[in-house]
Amino acid sequence: MDFEYTQAEEDFRHEVQIFLDENLPPKNQRGADFMARWLEKVRAKRWVGFAWPK
What is the DSSP letter of 27? Predict the structure, then answer.
């Protein structure tokens, strides 16, 4: 069984880390409009989905 990440998985992981570093401010620096702006950025990456608890 191979527990290593594929190159595509590593690339995606790196992409997400860069995105977070560039777009996610610390909690104490998030204004009232943070969530709206954050969701715009995440949607632009097409990383949004819905999850409902059972």
Answer: G
